[in-house]
Records
---
Amino acid sequence: MLGTESVIGIIGSGAMGSGIAQVAATSGNKVIIYDTNADALKKSKENLNASLTKLVEKGKISETKKNEIIAITTYSNFLNNFKECNLIIEAIVEKLEIKKQVFSEVEKIVSDNCILASNTSSLSITSIASACTKPDRVIGIHFFNPATLMPLVEIIPGVGSDSKIINEAKKLIDSWGKVTVIAKDTPGFIVNRVARPFYSEALRIADEQIADYATIDWAMKEFGGFKMGPFELMDLIGHDVNYVVTETVWTQFYYDPRFKPSLSQKRLLEAGFLGKKSGRGFYNYQNGEVLPEPKKDEKLGKYILNRVLCMLINEAADTLYLGIASKEDIDLAMTKGVNYPKGLLKWADECGLANVYSNLKELYAKYEEDRYRACVLLKQLAVENKAFY
Ligand SMILES: NC(=O)c1ccc[n+]([C@@H]2O[C@H](COP(=O)([O-])OP(=O)(O)OC[C@H]3O[C@@H](n4cnc5c(N)ncnc54)[C@H](O)[C@@H]3O)[C@@H](O)[C@H]2O)c1
């Protein structure tokens, strides 16, 4: 059984690995972080110290607690030190072949009952597990960035994973103060799949010149209550990350037009306009954060929100229909993983499923594209005048 006495091994001391390590050590678990890059290990150690010092200054933890966390966190560039680990979480580069190689190497070192997990955002857990002689102990444990602040963790069984291991991992991560949801091993799991239309439908509206970026951002915040608009958010995430996730999900779903990326975003990536971090993305940040004024047209704003929201609800409905996750977990994932103001299925009930279905039918009739096909479950419930809850 995993518990506070369990030793956690982290592979990869980048943004995610370092954050996950801090979460585990804060809960009292001994942590060993491994990376092939000595500079990355050094940076990780410095960042932990800086992050804990800030928490002490803010009065969130005591100096003693800070020292305890530091004392139980060790750094290593030898995988052999993982012998004593009970759970390993891998957070290295997002490349399937490299992950498979690392899993097969680490499996030779750890004990038979050590659980092996990947923090991958987009790769198949089942495929990673296939590199191991005991694939039943391999699962996905997907944290969100920054891992220390974002409450959601998706737990993903591979096709051959042992269900006991899923329960054990869930209990441990819950004990770290996180909100866990279970997702089937499919592209994007819950959040990175269901959230796609937030970006892609907004891009489609802009590409069709129905509204500009600032107006779409304004509409989603003003009428939808989203904390950030899609273009601001894509610029913040960075197009090197956001576009690549969209493209990966689209290709893994056999080019389903529902997930089709936008050429406008691809061009930004090609130009090196990665968003806020490079000074330019959809918006120009070179002179500070002065963003263009939206066109505050209420009718247009409500049309934009309605269109994006219906596409989001449709994706959430399909995720439920295809058994990727329970309705409760889908709603929890979107509120805790990407801060949506409401769970999408609950929101759908509030809008009335007949209204959502009718909007989708209108889009489908207008464009005659498979992208706008309504989820069968949504259609069925709407026709029967029922709700998700
Ligand atoms: N950054 C995010 O927003 C985010 C969110 C959720 C999940 N993820 C996933 O987490 C993983 C890591 O992402 P990140 O943003 O922390 O990356 P990162 O680039 O910040 O860090 C990756 C680290 O892995 C190390 N590394 C690379 N190959 C290695 C190997 N063979 N053995 C040991 N160490 C190796 C690198 O030196 C680097 O320090 C990826 O799978 C990514 O998809 C990222």
---
Amino acid sequence: MSACPTGCGRSVTLGNLMCAPCWHRVPRELQTPVWVAWRQLNKAVTRGLDERAIRTLKREHAEARAAAIEHAKACVVQRELFA
Ligand SMILES: [Zn+2]
């Protein structure tokens, strides 16, 4: 278990990007790219695609994750401000 990257104070199960309440605040248009990039990356690794292709997919996945975390972080800040 590690701390949720949004700073909400909850912990995250290993393998998850963030805790469930934070993830549910992320809109679908930001969630979908995370899933898509993750699936593509897994497929590429399984099929043994070349390192450059995998690097590109890893970057796309990291960017999609960062966008989702950014959004969830903003939600946490808002909640603190308006609590
Ligand atoms: Zn959280």
